[in-house]
């Protein structure tokens, strides 16, 4: 029962990664000034969000196994 909050946190992290990725892909597809200024920053945030999601996932697995 104590792993449910971690599951919700994991779902939120995955959703955040998807939103950041969609924003980056959309900006890349559209091109222009937004992509030129924000493209690299958005993809850096995606990598950070993915690392956090993986850490939460590993924590969730560890809690479930114990």
Description:
It comes from Paracoccus denitrificans (strain Pd 1222). Keywords: Membrane, Transmembrane, Transmembrane helix. Residues 1-66 form the HIG1 domain. The chain crosses the membrane at residues 6-25, 45-63. This is HIG1 domain-containing protein. This protein has helices spanning 4-30, 32-65. The protein has one domain. It contains two helices and no strands. By secondary structure, the chain is mainly α. It starts with a helix and ends with a helix. Helix 1 (4-30) runs antiparallel to helix 2.
**How helical, in percent, are the residues?**
over 70%
Largest sheet: none
Query: Percent of residues in beta strands?
Result: under 5%
Number of beta strands: 0
Order of helices and strands: HH
Structural class: mainly alpha
Question: How far apart are the termini?
Answer: 12 Å
Transmembrane segments: 6-25, 45-63
Keywords: Membrane, Transmembrane, Transmembrane helix
Pfam families: HIG_1_N
Protein name: HIG1 domain-containing protein
